[in-house]
Amino acid sequence: MTDSTANGNGQGSGEQQIPPGARGYDGFGGHIGRTSAESTPWWKPETKAPAGAPNIVVILIDDMGYSDIGPFGSEIDTPNLNRLADSGYRLSNYHTTSVCSPARAALLTGLNPHRAGYGSVANFDPGFPGLRMELADDALSLAEILRANGYATHAVGKWHLARDTNLAPGRTRDSWPLQRGFDSYYGSLEGLNSFYYPNELISDNSVVDVEEYPSDYYVTDDITDKAVARIKSLRAHDADKPFFLYFSHIAMHGPHQAKPEDLAKYRGRYTEGWDAVRRSRFDAQLEAGFFPPGTQMAERNTEPGYDAPPWNELTEEEQLRFARYQEVYAAMVDSIDQSVGRVLDTLDELGETDNTIIVFTSDNGGTAEGGAAGTRSYFSQFVHGPVPSDWVRDVPHDEELIGSEKIGVHYPRGWGQASNTPFRFYKGQTFAGGVRVPFLLSWPAGLGRADGDTGLRKHYSYVTDITPTLLDLAGLETPSHRNGLPAQERDGVSIADVLRDAAQPTPHTEQYAEFGGHRGFYRDGWKLLSLHTDPTRVDDPQWQLFDVESDPAETTDVAHLFPEKVRELAEAWDQAAWHNTVFPILNDRKAVQRRPDERRLAEPVKILAGTPTLERYRSSVLVQYRDFTIDVATHAIAAGDEGVLVAHGDPHGGYVLYVEDGRIVFAVNSYGRVAHTSAPLGADVVGVQVRAEATESVRWNFTITVTDSAGVTTDVATLDDQFQLVGMAPWTGISVGVDARGPVVWDLRERRGTFRFTGRLRSVTYTPGPVRVPEPVIQEVEELAEAMAD
């Protein structure tokens, strides 16, 4: 690259020997002289995808069961998904994990979930390798691999691969989308969200500072808008670069809410009940050839805590309300199909549909989180365990509100089993109802079907197979390292040969499963399962054995007929568990343990006026299970000043302190039950305090105090015996000077909007006090909230 100097002092014309240590020239492929005229420029080659490389779109649904779409037997209108099935492939024996975060980690890395660090959901951090709830530094993501192969990479929707304590400013973003290979991201990092009033949305690496959502806002439409915009924008700037779109829907997770026009379409369509719907869907699956002739559908679950009653034994009132819950669910599925249609329409307009690989699937099976009777108060339903017997998990509302933005509902588990037709159990269990879900794959240009091929594939496959299959189909290579570290070897295998030829055997012949003590092991058509019911026997599984070739619905336990097979598979499960860092299986308070350094989140905090809404978890730590005080400091409140001083929560639960018509008002929304207290404000007020006293019965007693400019404080109002907001409530964080995002109290929002305070607000200070709720109550509430929040 260099020659000797042209003269003795190294000045003037000629070339200069580059001195040692001039590292800026390292790796330069051109020629350097002293002037540009004597030098040859060089540019690092741009990373480009292979010519003709396909676009890749992965559409992942949350909590959608096996039978919920038309190609898998549903009566719900899904014309766009039907189109994908008609041109592509249906995998009738595809398996996933039983809850969300593990499935997402496995999908995006090809690693088994515990090896990826997600043996559970990305909320707690018990401090063990398989439960660290953060992606490892040596775990390559599909987005990182595709970007290294010249792809544009975009993610929209639900993420839930970052611990909730890392969703706030100043925290590590190591497991956020942009740090894991995506060029852009828009959506919710949480495990769930409101469809009308998301508690927090993220654009790339920053919170979207929303005060009020538009009146016609619906989150599925919002993320679809962003997905379509990403595709259009890329094509406006680059006509050839292939893209990867990871479109992870927040639906179908509760709280269930649907747009009025979609809900109207399904009004009255579920009066026949879940037993009839299950039978109809199963008949359609048999007709499509999903299962061998003579296959039996699982009976309704009868195990305590999982059971669903016969529809004809419900009262007329229950049937009416339960049918409405399912109408909402169906409307949401329809909305997802419309979203798929908008993506397809965009690809059609660009002429790129044929050369786009599209995957559509779900993270886990349909859920039982609505309980036996469903709920009109979603976050109250989360609060289980040894709480007082008068705790109301289904706060009554006008049933015309079911599905609307004003309440959050969830269907009863009878509909969850209908979702999982023809299988047993639900999300969270390792039986088929929790882990067998629909799977569609379409790529007309690369996987056109031969004459007579229906596109149905009955081969066993698993969520870890998605990444290697997509890379195989696209003909792409995987980097050997990530950030200088040797990349972990994938557990998944490509099933591309199976897609091309139904006569090929499945390459995925065995797979372990575990969540919350529930276990499973599949090998060559045999499936070993254990339903965990006794915390004292978490490491003493009561094994059941099924021949899932002839009994895919797992209806007949044959463990007593094949004890040697039980021992063989039990030993294989144990070996796989050690290899995949499944142990330890949590059976004590460590299940909800968090990192010790998170204790500082419960220290007092001063929030200045104008501070954006606090993140949900940070806000909740200040108040849950404990005494707390809220001190509002203002300049003297003048006559006519009004508005919200502080608000925490939304329609699903919260509290708000505001000034209106010369009165100080404090309102508590306990999961849909709203109580108020108020008092005349008086003159020369410069401070207001809310003092909360927690009780062991999971209640709060509130006292409101005002302070004048002379420092005189006066108790002016009380509000006693209010249900504490615990579990996942309040869902929206703390706002100062405005009731941002979802309204805590509906009639206030309808009268005054977000009601920004018109006076001069200085700050709001939260001072957490002692925890008053017994530890066993907290542990059980948090364990169940964790499981249902995914």
Report what the structure shows:
This protein is an alpha+beta fold and 790 residues long. The protein has 2 domains: 57-374 and 410-508, Alkaline Phosphatase, subunit A, CATH 3.40.720.10; 598-787, Jelly Rolls (Sandwich). It contains 17 helices and 29 strands. A 10-stranded mixed sheet has the order 7-6-5-4-8-1-9-10-2-11, sandwiched between helices. Strands 19-29-20-25-26-27 form a 6-stranded antiparallel sheet, with no helix packed on it. Strands 24-23-22-21-28 form a 5-stranded antiparallel sheet, with no helix packed on it. A hairpin with a 4-residue loop joins strand 26 and strand 27 (713-723). The longest helix has 35 residues, at 316-350. It is globular. The relative contact order is 0.13. Mean pLDDT is 94; it is low at 1-14.
